[in-house]
């Protein structure tokens, strides 16, 4: 009923290949964008900004970076958090060496450092595959975190070994640091995440995306039809690491405000891998759904007992929370092993043909 | 339908409820009863909560207002900590961040939100500089105080005795563990002893064979440990295994947790830990807690925690907060206070011997006083020694030489303010 596609005729190839072949998809996206850009910022509290909106967006972006590499190009990586760290430390060095620099430019530039490091650690992917490659990226994880701890220049010889975000202005408005307003930070994050999402959608639908998918599905066949595997794999590493680096800079500069080296340790890598897997490998939408489930849901569950006035101690809530989120992950993976994005695709298909299923 | 009605009613009740509950003192605690450090957290949190429960039960709160000592669970994770801070900051009088990571993140925000941070015995040592860290308090002693006191116990009171010694500094490779390094380095240069820093990575906490191999090779005269959580028990077990003389082994106050030592029992005899708190099982306060809190079951404390160092340290922490609230109430003349009032109260703490006796806490913490310029109080501390079964007091009250520490704290505070410019500095304190 809501998703009826009758009457929407395609008369040209371009129209058939358009981003939104079904009109309702475009309407739905417009509604979501209106929520993200107008309604949520107007209604959200400081708590919602800091614990739901900003982190979900940033985690979605990181998962999107990983999804380019793992979901589209088929190269398994366990070093995501370390590449985020490269972005964060690069951004920190950029703004402390050049305090006049526009913070958004610094954030976007820090991605290049992470892309460089990503390509370096991606070189082994030309010779090894699957689990063996995962081990190689795991090496990146250990090595880079060790580097963040030992290379004191990275954190400006700070006695505590942690980096702290100074107050940064852009056109007279503070966008980062303790005095920054949450709404300003949200808009900066939203703008960058929207831009990156558009970039990713177009990349994955274009030549490069098809090259990646071919590499993922069968690299020998891809090579036989003339795809340069080296180029395909290394561009995937570079673009993926660039996005992850930018998200790492956002993570520290627009949200956390401070970071110590062990923040970028392996649990964070796993968390992002879970978001990508539960959301759906090889999809853009899935990253958002996964981040909402893994990052947003625990926060909401935590506030529930208090809202309903249930006298449960905070520690018990935490234990319950871990159990509920854990069982939900298993539940979703049982009903749809290909992730939440696939689940949504099935629902959408059912809606289109409703009420007459085949 | 019925369920929805019930839910709606419950929501309505909560909304009304929170409106009516305004007259209370809301002092949330960012607790960690779950996660990797829960074993250390639980006795501390229990002590803190029990003291406030006692005040509520016995006196109806502080100044007639009940204390709402709600806990927000962080599991020691920084992310959850920030979530808790955002959740509680609306009505909170104080932030008790608990982990160094959370303190790091929350510290700059409290300046903006104007809520005092109370970090008893942890956090940054330069927080004592009240002019720079206007909203942060770490009474009664800072890590630099602790490091100095350990050195002075090793030297037997005269720092000149340290000349030519070799002291290993076994520490967690983390902001917390690195905290005393600037002071130790300065002291090493000044008094001519050799400092061997031995970092323990967060991932290697439970397997320190490499570090203790280094200890065995270096043969230091003393080992000072700045450890936390699983690191302490592993280090103590390794020290026993490598037969390092226990009486030359010193720990910070967080490395004096009874169960860690109980695991090695008599073999840990002689191990020392500096502490600004001391369990007093026979004190009047403990008798009252047993009668009014434990017996009535309004607690999560178990019997075996009661006389442990950590549980009673929790009591002292809550006492500091309660005294800060009392001072603020006396100053403003109102029972209902604002975070800014509490800031004044924490800045004007005067915990004297008489006051401690009056609270039934004689000997549980050394007397100290804070001021606008001195947010720590520098109470000094005692050396606690493990006698094979429990910790006993093994020294008179030690004091850190503030002329050394203050110069360093001033320099580091200025550095912090500069790195985080524009940082509001209050020059009116002097000092």
Automatic annotation (TrEMBL), chain A:
It is a multi-pass membrane protein. This is Branched-chain amino acid transport system permease protein. It is found in: Cell membrane. Keywords: Cell membrane, Membrane, Transmembrane, Transmembrane helix. InterPro entries: ABC_transp_permease, LivM-like. It comes from Donghicola tyrosinivorans. The chain crosses the membrane at residues 26-43, 49-69, 76-95, 101-123, 130-148, 186-204, 234-256, 268-301, 322-347. The lineage of its organism: Bacteria, Pseudomonadati, Pseudomonadota, Alphaproteobacteria, Rhodobacterales. Pfam families: BPD_transp_2. One of its GO terms (molecular function) is branched-chain amino acid transmembrane transporter activity. Coiled coil: none annotated. One of its GO terms (cellular component) is plasma membrane.
Automatic annotation (TrEMBL), chain B:
The keyword Signal applies. Keywords: Signal. Gene3D superfamilies: 3.40.50.2300. Residues 30-388 form the Leucine-binding protein domain. InterPro entries: Leu-bd, Peripla_BP_I. Residues 1-22 form the signal peptide. Belongs to the leucine-binding protein family. It comes from the Bacteria. It holds the Pfam family Peripla_BP_6. This is Branched-chain amino acid transport system substrate-binding protein.
């Amino acid at each position: 009923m809501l998703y009826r596609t009758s009457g929407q005729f395609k008369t040209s190839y371009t129209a058939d290949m358009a981003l939104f072949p079904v009109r309702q998809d475009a309407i739905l996206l417009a509604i979501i964008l209106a929520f993200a850009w107008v309604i949520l910022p107007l209604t959200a509290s400081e708590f919602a900004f800091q614990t739901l909106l900003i982190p979900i967006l940033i985690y979605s972006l990181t998962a999107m970076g990983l999804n380019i590499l793992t979901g589209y190009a088929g190269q398994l990586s366990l070093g995501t958090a370390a590449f985020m760290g490269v972005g964060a430390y690069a951004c920190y060095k950029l703004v402390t060496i050049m305090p006049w620099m526009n913070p958004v430019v610094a954030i976007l530039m820090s991605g290049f450092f992470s892309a460089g490091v990503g390509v370096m650690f991606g070189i082994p992917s030309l010779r090894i595959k699957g689990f063996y490659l995962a081990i190689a990226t795991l090496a990146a994880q250990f090595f880079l975190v060790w580097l963040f701890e030992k290379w004191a220049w990275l954190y400006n010889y700070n006695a505590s070994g942690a980096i702290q975000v100074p107050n940064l202005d852009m056109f007279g408005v503070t966008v980062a640091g303790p005095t920054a307003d949450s709404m300003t930070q949200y808009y900066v994050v939203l703008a960058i995440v929207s831009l990156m999402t558009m970039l990713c959608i177009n990349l994955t639908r274009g030549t490069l995306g098809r090259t990646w998918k071919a590499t993922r599905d069968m690299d020998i066949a891809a090579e036989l039809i003339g795809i340069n595997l080296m180029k395909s794999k290394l561009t995937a590493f570079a673009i993926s690491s660039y996005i992850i680096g930018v998200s790492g800079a956002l993570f520290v500069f627009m949200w956390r405000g401070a970071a110590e080296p062990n923040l970028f340790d392996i649990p964070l890598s796993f968390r992002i891998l879970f978001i990508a897997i539960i959301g759906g490998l090889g999809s853009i939408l899935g990253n958002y759904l996964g981040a909402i489930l893994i990052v947003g849901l625990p926060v909401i569950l935590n506030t529930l007992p208090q809202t309903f006035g249930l006298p449960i101690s905070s520690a018990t809530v935490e234990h319950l929370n871990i159990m509920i989120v854990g069982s939900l992950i298993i539940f979703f993976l049982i009903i749809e092993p290909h992730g939440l994005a696939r689940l949504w695709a099935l629902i959408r298909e059912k809606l289109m043909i409703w009420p007459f299923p085949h | 339908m019925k369920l929805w009605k019930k839910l709606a009613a419950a929501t309505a009740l909560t909304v009304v409820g929170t409106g009516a509950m305004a007259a209370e003192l809301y002092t949330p605690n960012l607790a960690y009863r779950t996660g990797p450090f829960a074993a250390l957290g639980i006795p501390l949190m229990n002590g803190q909560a029990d003291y406030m429960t006692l005040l509520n039960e016995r006196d109806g709160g502080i100044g007639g207002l009940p204390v709402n000592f709600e806990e927000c669970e962080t599991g020691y994770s920084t992310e959850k900590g920030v979530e808790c801070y955002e959740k509680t900051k609306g009505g909170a009088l104080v932030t008790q961040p608990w982990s160094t990571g959370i303190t790091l993140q929350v510290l700059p925000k409290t300046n903006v939100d104007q809520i005092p941070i109370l970090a008893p015995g942890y956090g940054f040592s330069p927080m004592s500089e009240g002019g720079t860290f206007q909203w942060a308090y770490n009474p009664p002693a800072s890590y630099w105080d602790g490091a100095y006191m350990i050195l002075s116990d090793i030297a037997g009171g005269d720092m000149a005795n340290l000349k030519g010694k070799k002291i290993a500094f076994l520490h967690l490779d983390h902001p917390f563990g690195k905290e005393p390094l600037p002071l130790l380095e300065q002291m090493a240069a000044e008094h001519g002893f050799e400092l061997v820093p031995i970092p323990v990575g967060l991932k290697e906490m439970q397997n320190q064979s490499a570090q203790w191999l280094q200890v065995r090779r270096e043969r230091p005269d003393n080992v000072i440990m700045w450890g936390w959580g699983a690191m302490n028990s592993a280090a103590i077990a390794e020290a026993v295994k490598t037969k390092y003389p226990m009486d030359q082994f010193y720990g910070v106050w967080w490395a004096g947790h009874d169960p860690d030592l109980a695991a090695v029992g008599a073999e840990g005899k002689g191990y020392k830990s500096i502490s600004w708190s001391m369990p007093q099982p026979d004190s009047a306060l403990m008798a009252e807690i047993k009668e009014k809190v434990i017996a009535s079951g309004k607690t999560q404390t178990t019997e075996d925690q009661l006389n442990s160092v950590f549980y009673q340290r929790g009591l002292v922490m809550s006492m500091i907060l309660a005294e800060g609230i009392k001072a603020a109430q006396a100053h403003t003349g109102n029972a209902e206070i604002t975070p800014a009032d509490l800031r004044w109260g924490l800045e004007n703490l005067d915990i004297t011997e008489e006051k401690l006796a009056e609270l039934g806490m004689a000997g549980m913490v050394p007397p100290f006083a804070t001021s606008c310029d001195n947010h720590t109080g520098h109470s000094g501390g005692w050396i606690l020694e493990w006698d094979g079964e429990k910790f006993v007091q093994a020294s008179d009250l030690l004091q850190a030489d503030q002329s050394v520490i203050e110069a360093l704290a001033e320099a580091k505070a200025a550095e912090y303010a500069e790195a985080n410019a524009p940082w509001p500095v209050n020059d009116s304190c002097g000092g």
